[in-house]
Amino acid sequence: MKALLPAVAAGAAAAALAVSGCGTSSGASPAKTITVTVTPSAAATTPASSTPTTPAATSPAGAGTAACLSRYLHGSTGLTQGAAGSQYVVLQFKNLDNVPCTLYGFPGVAQATGTPLTDVGQPSTESPTTARELVTLQPGGYANATLQIVQAANYPAAKCQPQTVHWLAVIPPNQRVPLFIPFTSAACKGQVKLLTVTAVRPGDGG
Question: Which architecture does CATH list for 70-202?
Fold first, then answer.
């Protein structure tokens, strides 16, 4: 038993030397630390766009054809008839140009008189009974809209302030320059609204 103790002690000392040898010795180079910089790809670093995608064009088919300009249109009245305290007047637009053009929406209408011509009363309102429709006018072709003129006599004179006028100032859809069409009617100089107009339709309105 006494012989084993020195052997155990010697073994322990050897093990301690072995563990000590695993440490960094004065002649060994220290381990190097390598820093790796990872650059994310552009797709990963670019945030999703906050701008919504522009939807497909909602303009009606055939919108590539230019709009009809006032200077290339001739305005006239067609069929006129009375019913239920109103006059209904067909407004006609003729394409005087040598290329097709389009009309889309509602014309603006006012009664006018004087020299120079001056609007009298309130301008037209859009009829809720008709929807916008793209109308292509070939050279010499027609489009039309129907104007309702409520009789001024339906209103008290003090409120209407009636006046006889001899013209209609008609602005084609999406234009600013009016076409002056001769037409005699009674207007109200007051705040009474007499005029309602439909959207344009193909043809001369018969």
Answer: Sandwich (2.60)
Mean pLDDT within 72-81: 97
The residue-averaged pLDDT of 164-185 equals: 98
Identify the CA nearest to 180 among candidates 123, 119, 134: 119
- Assign 3-state DSSP to the chain and report helix, strand, coil percentages, each to 5: 15, 35, 50
Other beta carbons less than 10 A from residue 8's beta carbon? 9
Q: What is the DSSP letter of 205?
A: -
CA angle, corner 63, sides to 57 and 68, nearest 5? 145
For the chain, give the number of residues.
Answer: 206
Contact assessment for residue 189 and residue 182, using Cβ atoms and an 8 Å cutoff:
no
- What pLDDT, on a 0 to 100 scale, did the predictor assign at position 84? 87
Place of tokens 């239920």: 84
205 touches 146 (CB < 8 A):
yes
Per-residue confidence (pLDDT) for residue 51, from 0 to 100: 33
60: pLDDT confidence band, cut at 50, 70 and 90? low
Residue 130 Cα distances to 69, 105, 144, 152, 203, angstroms: 23, 10, 13, 24, 16
Question: Between 132 and 4, whose confidence is greater?
Answer: 132
